[in-house]
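Sample intake sheet
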Amino acid sequence: MHGKVWLVGAGPGDPELLTLKAARVLRGAQVVMVDDLVNRAVLEHCPDARVIAVGKRGGCRSTPQAFIHRLMLRYARQGKSVVRLKGGDPCIFGRASEEADWLQARGIEVEVVNGITAGLAGATHFGIPLTLRGVARGVSFVTAHTQDDSPLDWTALAHSGTTLVVYMGVAKLAEIRSNLIAAGLAASTPVALIENASLPQQRECRSDLANMHDDALAFALKSPAILVIGAVAASAVMTVHATRSSPGLRSK
């Protein structure tokens, strides 16, 4: 009998943001294949499982995706309960679809367990709602890195009227700024740069589209980080961490 593969979202970093279902699935896992960005505290839920690191981080040496596919298949064919543990949500820039399709084509049962994505958690911890009546009618999640380096539709994004949340954009800040301004988004559009979303060491820098590259350099922004671009980034309208200071805020 074949086992089963669970594609589980570990959330943005704070282990308390793990869902109850994810914790239950981890407790029953025999093999856990864990991404580099997953907080290792989450592994307390699977003390008896075999844990295999299959790191993937931008700009660093990564485990080949084909190898990860074969490894999941091998253990599932041994009848084991396999968890592929991913940072954030497995269906938001997490390759869940291609992994599920590949495994199901080979007769392996797959189930997805959603997790909280970093773009949402990071913004919330900074007091920023991604949607706000009369200000932002929606939110667009995009990645600055694509497999084939195809460009985003910057014009559509600039005129969408939505909050723009950019993942994996630290190395492309100048390019993002130039493309959005050229597409018609005002240079004065507020931007929040958020590093280590939801973790105790989360840092934030408030800027605008024209100055975000220079401000990020001055702030020494590092990955993993997300960008929140849009009117909601202008001020923290929610008091989430009343006693927590936010270093590096740029006055506007």
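Comment: Confidence is low (pLDDT under 50) at residues 241-252. The domain at 118-234 is CATH 3.30.950.10 (Methyltransferase, Cobalt-precorrin-4 Transmethylase; Domain 2).
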